[in-house]
């Protein structure tokens, strides 16, 4: 396989289903990516796959490949003298098959119902480890632990976390490379590549896209402030620094992430994780129901005590034989019984 000169796959985009983290719908995201020349669009919303069907539907209409993933908060063990026993960092998981998509749904349910503060690493090992052949794990972008710990010069802990993840996703763990056009980005990317090389882990070019175009930056900043509960005058590390998280172009991203192995791995993952979920195949299961019993003994006893005259009229208009499945519906019978009731 020849080394690509452009990044034609966006693996880790987020839509407005990531509340307060994006400004673009899955449909618009695919449309803008198609016009820009991308061949694959991946959606990895925060604790949600709500945009998966819309993504696949529009990708098929535009002739693009769709990738379904999710961004999950995961709890990692803190150092011995830390104030909290765990520290939360995001991970990006991509489904390689329908079994992987099912596992993503299970993990999202665990976070929403049992671990809203973050998925324990043991739970990820138990659920994700069983489906390791159906999932791809990316280490996260700007808020991921390789970047955060690398900027804090805590490379030993970053290496420890990478080893823990490698024990879960043996051959499916990639160090994510993203570019925010911030100061010292090349130095940060070199540090991540060196860390991955020391641990013999692959890197992948996966920009964090959450805007359709640069004009959406003020709205993204306002939504981020609203999610964090701060005003626009208050600085915060999670606020977007500029308009770098737009869709962009394949050549533009290749210029910002000019690493042949990372571009090649992005192209490879785009082929491995392409998944289509047709709308008519996503139906909720119907719960088992018992047939209603209009002439319930309990209902008749209570109503007779309150309105003996009314129950006599209903019984006359609707004998027990009318309860058969092919009989006249009880609504019509009841209407006939009460149609002669004088107005008050």
Automatic annotation (TrEMBL):
Superkingdom field: Bacteria
Pfam families from the xrefs?
A: PHP
Instruction: Pinpoint the PHP domain residues.
Output: 13-169
The record ties this protein, via InterPro entries, to: DnaE2/DnaE/PolC, PHP_dom
PANTHER family reported for this sequence: DNA POLYMERASE III SUBUNIT ALPHA, ERROR-PRONE DNA POLYMERASE
Q: Which protein is depicted?
A: PHP domain-containing protein
Gene source species: Deinococcus multiflagellatus
């Amino acid at each position: 396989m020849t080394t690509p000169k452009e990044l034609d796959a966006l693996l880790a985009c987020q839509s407005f289903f990531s509340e307060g983290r994006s400004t673009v719908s899955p449909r618009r995201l695919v449309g803008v990516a198609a016009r820009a020349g991308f061949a694959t669009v991946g959606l990895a919303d925060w604790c949600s796959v709500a945009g998966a069907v819309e993504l696949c539907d529009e990708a098929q209409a535009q002739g693009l490949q769709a990738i379904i993933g999710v961004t999950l908060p995961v709890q990692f063990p803190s150092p011995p003298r830390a104030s909290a026993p765990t520290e939360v960092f995001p991970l990006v998981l991509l489904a390689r098959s329908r079994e992987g998509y099912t596992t993503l749904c299970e993990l999202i349910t665990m976070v929403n119902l049992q671990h809203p503060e973050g998925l324990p690493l043991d739970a990820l090992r138990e659920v994700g480890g069983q489906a390791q052949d159906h999932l791809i794990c990316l280490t996260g972008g700007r808020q991921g632990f390789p970047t955060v710990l690398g900027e804090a010069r805590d490379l030993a802990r970053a290496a420890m976390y990478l080893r823990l993840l490698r024990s879960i996703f043996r051959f499916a763990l990639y160090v994510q490379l993203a570019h925010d056009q911030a100061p010292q980005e090349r130095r940060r990317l070199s540090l991540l590549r060196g860390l991955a090389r020391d641990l013999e882990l692959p890197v992948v070019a996966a920009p964090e896209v959450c805007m359709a175009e640069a004009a959406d930056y003020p709205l993204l900043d306002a939504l981020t402030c609203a999610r964090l509960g701060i005003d626009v005058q208050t600085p915060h590390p999670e606020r977007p620094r500029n308009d770098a998280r737009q869709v962009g172009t394949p050549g533009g991203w290749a210029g910002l992430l000019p690493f042949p192995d990372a571009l090649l791995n992005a192209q490879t993952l785009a082929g491995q994780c392409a998944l289509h979920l047709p709308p008519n195949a996503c139906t909720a299961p119907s719960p088992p129901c018992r047939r209603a019993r209009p002439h319930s003994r309990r209902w008749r006893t209570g109503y007779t005590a309150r309105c003996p005259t009314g129950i006599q009229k209903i019984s006359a208009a609707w004998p027990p034989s009318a309860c058969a499945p092919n009989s006249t519906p009880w609504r019509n019978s009841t209407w006939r019984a009460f149609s002669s009731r004088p107005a008050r």
